[in-house]
Every structure is written in C-alpha cells, then in structure tokens.
Amino acid sequence: MRCSLHNIRQLEGKRVALWGWGREGRAAYHALRSRLPEQPLTLFCSPDEAGDAHALGDTRLLVETTATAEALAAFDVVVKSPGISPYRAEAVAAAGQGTRFIGGTALWFAEHAEARTICVTGTKGKSTTTALLAHLLRAGGRVTALAGNIGLPLLELLDPPTSPEFWAIELSSYQTGDVADSGVRPEVAVALNVFPEHLDWHGSQTRYVDDKLRLLTEARPRVAVLNANDATLASLALPDCEVRWFGREDGWHLRDDVLYRGDTLVMNTVTLPLPGLHNRGNLCAVLTAVEALGLDAVAFAPHAASFQPLPHRLQTLGTRDGITYVNDSISTTPHASLAALEVFRDRRVAILVGGHDRGIDWTAFAEAMQRQAPAAIVTMGQNGPRIHALLAPIAMQSDFRLTAADGLADALTQARDALAGDGVVLLSPGAPSFGPYRDYVARGRHFAELTGFDPDMISAIPGLGIA
User: Fold this and answer.
1) Digit-coded pLDDT (tens) for 344-402
2) Helix, strand, coil % (nearest 5) of the chain?
3) DSSP code at position 185
C-alpha cells in the first residue's frame, strides 16, 4: 500500500513515532527534526538505547522501551527501522487499527522524487554491485552518491551539500517495499538474483520473494535490469517497465572470463579485482544499468580495473604460516558459501559455516558436497548442529573432514589443524551473525583479530557518500 507522502512535512500535526534506534533510527529522527522541529515524537527503543536518546535533551521526544500493539496503535504513523519486521504480531495488530508503518527509505524517496536513482537489490552480490556502479559512474566523470543498505542510510543525505547527478542505492528486502510505498518511481532498478533468505523477518519464502520483488512489481521503475539466468526474475511480467536483461547473448554477458556486449568482445575479466565468476557476472548488471542511463557503457567498462573490493566479501586478509585467511562474513546464505568455495576450488580449503538459524534449507549445499567438497568443513553457531547432521552421511562416504566447533575461535583451531599448514581458511558462514555478534561486520572483525590481522584495516567501506 502506497503511503502517498510527498514530503516529511506532511507528517506535521500527526501522531508520529519512531521504532528503533540504530543508525537508521537515528537518521530518521534527525530528518524529522530538520523538517519538523516542534513536532512531538515518541521513540520506541530498547532499554540499552534509551540513555542515548535521553542525552539528546529533546523535550519534545518521549522515549518508551516497550512497543506493544496498544502503544503502537496510538499513532497515525510509525517510522520503523529496517530490521524490525512489519509482520510482528504487535505491528500487524496496530496496522489493523489504522497505524501506518513506513521506513526511512520511503521518507527519503518522498523528498527526492526527481532524483536519478539506480536501486540495486538481490539476495547475493548487491553491495559489491552497487559500489561498482558508483565507482564506474564516478570514474566516468559523473558525481554519484553511494548510499542505502551498504552502510549509509539515505536519510543521512536528506539535504546533501552537493547534488549528485546519480544515486546508486543498495536496498535489502527490508527496504524494497519502502520505495513502492513512497509512490516515487526509480529511474533504474537492478535485480541480481532471488534465493531464500531472511525467513525470520518475512515469515515465509513466498513472502520474502514477494517483498524483494516489490521494487519491480510495485515501485515500477522506468527501466528494470534483470538477470536472465535467474528463474524467478526470468518469469516476471513487468508491463509498466522497460526490461533490459544481462547474462543473455544479445546484451552484456560473459563467455568464460571474457566480457561481451552482444557479439562484441569488450575485455577479459580474469584480472579484475572482482573475486568469483558471480561478481564478474554482476559487472554485466552494472554495465546494463549504465546503458539504461543513456551512457556509453563500453567506455566505462575498463574502469572496473581500479575498483576497490568491499570488506567482508571474499576479502583476503593475508597469509600466515602457509595458511591464507579469507573473510567472507557477509555470506548469509548457503548459496553464497557455495559461490565462495567456487572461487577457491583449486586450493585446499577449510570452510567455516553456520550462525543464526533462520530455517534456511542447506540441502543444495549438501548435494554440492557430494560432487566437490573442500578439504574440511567446520560447523558452528545455532544452526551448526543441523548443518552437521545433514553433512555427516556425506562426509562418511567422501574424503573431506567434518568437525563441529564451539564458537569462531574453536572453529579456527579446527580448520588450521585440518589444513596442517597448507591451504585457505574461509569464513563463509552462509548464515547471519546474530547471537554472538551484532552484525556480519563484528563477526568479520573478530575473525581478523583471531587470525592476527588488524580489524581496523579491513572494515571501512570505500566510497560511501557523494563523490
């Protein structure tokens, strides 16, 4: 349902609350205050966050630490942080009584209806793809913003000092519906792939897919850039959009490691700083989007050689005592773990898998281990026992070592033992970090610390903001 907001000032005089006090929640607060300095607001946050909110000294901000259905229903509009599911019982009950739930992304789009936006989503690869898009546009002389789910909330750029020509925006499945709800059509929307993920937030695989695809089916971008090799995307009917395909022989595609535009050979991609064939395939998505903006993508393509890879995404930390350590903490699906293994298929690998259990099916991963397995698999985390039980019969009939660990430090010890001084320890968990870690960044930083590398040197995302 569209929220029909034209700007934040339309909230003036309404009963408005914020729900969540992470970076997105704080950005929403400051955005509301910049437009509505006298508006009474209520914040629902955790007890640990309440002190930080009180420290603002805002006499018109009421802080509550319990968000019940009754409390939420007292408001006309609740601006919620992306991590809070609208399918929670209290949110569903309040919505049934007329409370409208919107996200910061919807507020930003409502304020920037004329912006030239390129929105990127997908279960896997969206951060690298969005950053690569911004890099190519900037290298081609175009002032471009890089923001969104990649690490810079859009509302932190509500009133930027410089107006970029283009906005490269990463959207998670938690945010794609916000674009649709804003009523603003993106100029270009890129969809890379759709695999099961975030089932705890969405409630089911069907709802996850539907929510993810709202960027296409309801936001109705002017141009939809779609992966021709993804069955879900290939079956879409988008009558309100111009559809451009990548991964197809009449457009941007790869033949082995060679990049083609139609039948025209453009360049060999094997030396590009894009680890994995899947990442180089996403270069095809970026170049298709560049073309959709009316630019010469063939001229932009060589700039991929100067791209700086993002942290926690197949990030090689270094080698110690014969073992190379690779941080792929961003991996939160079994499909991502399989893609990571493919990158190192010619090396002896001990992969660390497992984390927060969202009910994702690991059967496809297990079947792949029957065909080609690494030297060792170490399971860990909440879903570690479930993954271990699935792999145990296969390990008995194959030549890979399967062990279970109690936490990341123990998993590293077991991986090193399995490799005996020769190979790659690959952290590619295929699951979220929740529980021991706040997010995948904290997990990746801990991995770096445990392996003897400086976490501060491997965590910064280059290029955020406007350049």
Assistant:
1) 999 999 999 999 998 889 999 999 999 999 999 999 999 999 999 999 999 999 989 99
2) 40, 20, 40
3) P
How confident is the model over 409-434, as pLDDT tens digits? 999 999 999 999 999 999 999 999 98
Domains of the chain (ranges plus CATH)? 8-103 (3.40.50.720), 112-309 (3.40.1190.10), 315-457 (3.90.190.20)
Q: End-to-end distance of the chain based on CA atoms, in angstroms? A: 34
Sign of CA dihedral 66, 70, 74, 76: positive
> By the 8 A CB rule, do 305 and 270 touch?
no
Structure tokens at 140: 């081609």
Instruction: Give the model's pLDDT for residue 201.
Output: 62
Three-class SS of residue 120? Answer: strand
Residue 219, strand partner residues: none
Regions in the chain scoring below 50 on pLDDT: 1-3
Residue 411 to residue 355: CA distance in whole angstroms: 12
| Rounded Cα–Cα distance for residues 62 and 19 (Å) | 12
Question: Which pLDDT does position 123 carry in this prediction?
Answer: 87
Cα 30 to chain centroid distance, Å, stands at 24
Give the Å distances, CA to CA, from 25 to 62, 103, 184, 217: 14, 9, 22, 27
- Residue written as token pair 């601006």: 79
**Which run of H or of E encompasses 163?**
none
Residue 314 CA to residue 337 CA, distance in Å, equals 10
Q: Is pTM beyond 0.85 here? A: yes
Distance CA 335, CA 122 (A): 12
Residue 41 · residue 16 · CB < 8 Å: yes
Query: Residue 109: which residues within 8 A CB-CB, separation 6 or more?
Result: 117, 154, 178, 179, 182, 184
pLDDT digits (tens, 9 = 90+) for 324-339: 999 999 998 999 999 9
